[in-house]
Amino acid sequence: MTEAMRSGVPDVSVVMPCLNEVVTIGGCIEECLNTFTSANLRGEIVVSDNGSTDGSLEIAGSLGARVISVPLRGYGSALLAGIHACRAEVVVMGDSDGSYDFSQIPLFLAKLVEGNDLIVGDRFLGGIEPGAMPWLNRYVGNPLLTRIGNVLFHSDVRDFQCGIRAFRRETILGLGLASPGMEFASEMIAKSAMAGLRIGQVPARLRKDGRNRPPHLRPWRDGWRNLRYMLCERMAQRPVERSIYTTSPPYVSNEKSCRGNSRR
Ligand SMILES: Nc1nc2c(ncn2[C@@H]2O[C@H](COP(=O)(O)OP(=O)(O)O)[C@@H](O)[C@H]2O)c(=O)[nH]1
Ligand SMILES: [Mg+2]
């Protein structure tokens, strides 16, 4: 038994941003729980929400996830508050739309143990299921943003926008991440590279999301926000920007109803 397990701190926290994912959130949580069991991990799941109204949160809570309500909207705001709320030293982040395969968590953890600080999934190597990524994103948007990011930040990451990642919580929070929207994905890699962190990569399988409505991501708007972030960050020539949050961003947790739900 590790020291962390003895003290009741989970080995790993999985944080999922969620905005109205009633069709898929349950499956994502169950996939994580099955992975915790098969890999003999004591894990917790933190669902970070911006006001879902479709019953996603009730499902998440009933399956033992810790749900936090984040007033500031956006993918980045939700993830940042979620990471703050995590109790484990090691965090895995992944979408709650069924597109990522949480049974791959042990691969990410193994790569962290090799001495890396941040592990980024690579969907191009891991395999993209037919219909899982629009043509424009797959052949133009993502490769272009990745290329630009690598040039600007002297990194060698193959998939800058991949949403499944693992990292050491304190190290990533120390970067002062502050982007509220989808550009959070670029900010995490850019600031990690500028801070000289060790970035590892693992192939990540991308499935077609299981929802019955369009994604929150809007390719042109969010592509531009990512590009604008990277250009501004580079032009500012700041190694590490201060976070808008001095301690942790505001959120409300359902912790009371889920206390003791860490699963091995
Ligand atoms: N809490 C929260 N989650 C969000 C928001 N926007 C997207 N998400 C979640 O972030 C994940 C990725 O969003 P998605 O629309 O699938 O983007 P894509 O996978 O990049 O096309 C999903 O789990 C969404 O539910 C938001 O504004 N707030
Ligand atoms: Mg998605």
Characterization of the model:
Helices cover 40% and strands 14% of the residues. With 264 residues, it is of the alpha/beta class. It has a single domain (9-241), classed as Spore Coat Polysaccharide Biosynthesis Protein SpsA, Chain A. An 8-stranded mixed β-sheet has the order 7-5-6-4-1-2-3-8, sandwiched between helices. The longest helix has 19 residues, at 135-153. The relative contact order is 0.19. The site of magnesium ion has 5 residues, from loops. Magnesium ion binds at residues 95, 97, 99, 209, 215.
Secondary-structure topology with pairs:
Elements (H helix, E strand, L loop, with lengths): L2 H4 L5 E7 L6 H14 L4 E7 L6 H7 L3 E4 L5 H11 L4 E4 L11 H9 L4 E5 H4 L8 H19 L11 E4 H5 L10 H11 L4 E5 L15 H18 L15 E2 L1 H4 L6
Parallel strand pairs: 1-2, 1-4, 2-3, 5-7
Antiparallel strand pairs: 3-8, 4-6, 5-6
Helix pairs in contact: 7-9, 7-10, 9-10
